């Protein structure tokens, strides 16, 4: 089921025809569906209902305030990786007491802000970071609740750029060092061990690596409990994949079965950190065709969205569906590279697609663009970042204005 469907040949987000949004707001523009966001959130929370986990939406996937507010309203907590994301969560009305803080490079200032806000859990990724957190806690006369993020050293069988649980990865503490670090933490007055954490990678489409990692981590959790560490939370990270082309990731129910089966003996309160699975297929990026171009070697359609707006194809060779907002009648499909205006050879948003040749002025959508789309957008080539729109039934509103030219040099001095 999708909230983006063709009706009478026109692509709609819920009840809103997307050309109407493109004409009113311009392009490129990200459009999100409230219905899809809500349905994805509820699918996970209902699949896990019995376990009563804390569902901490991973803010990095899409940090728009309207989306954070929507998930906070559904009872969600948050998974953050920076002081900036903490500020966003607070600004959107999210609850720091339901928020977990990950990342290998938290600064003392970020730790202080999070501890002052009453964060639920610091997911600590190294011995030196634990010492730094201890120092912050002591300075503030508080014990910072922490979980060590352990590296379970399993191959998540995903793209190598987004696998995080390999032995060579910068993330997490080596599995064998965890016991000793928890033991050391007993002597630290500024921290208190409150949980255990792991995350093996993103866009997981198979359950076996997850099962293997969580089984290992659950065993460690029990060993730490046996050593009288007062752990309460088992954070299983995020990573559930979505369908971009023809992938068949586990359903929310299957995912819940695997997670719950692997962890039930621990008696821990589960923390989940889903990002992509909540927002990825709840968003599209609208773009307009500028030119067609043919060289002896290839046929191109040049569109007004570039790799600065949607980085995933350039960075990971990721595939996003590319469809016209108004279905074409007839016409012969040819092989086309859809490229952006950015001065980089990797600015190819859709490679070798079989399409009726797009025409100048025509509107298209890049599909499955709700996750790691706008949140990874940049101003490269001095391009203002896109607008964002949230649809709700027949209604829609701009939830982030298109950047203006003068925003490009805000804070600069000539
Ligand atoms: N928790 C931790 C500790 C993470 O590192 C991540 C993602 C998540 C949760 C959320 O994972 P998700 O449920 O979204 O898979 N930019 C890449 C993805 C990077 C993921 C980084 N970590 C992409 O566009 O595919």
Automatic annotation (TrEMBL):
The modification N6-(pyridoxal phosphate)lysine is found at residue 60. GO terms for molecular function: diaminopimelate decarboxylase activity; pyridoxal phosphate binding. It catalyses: meso-2,6-diaminopimelate + H(+) = L-lysine + CO2. It is an enzyme of class 4 (lyase). Substrate binds at residues 276, 312, 316, 344, 372. The keyword ATP-binding does not apply. The active site is at residue 343. Homodimer. HAMAP family: LysA (MF_02120). This is Diaminopimelate decarboxylase. It comes from Myxococcus stipitatus (strain DSM 14675 / JCM 12634 / Mx s8). The gene is lysA.
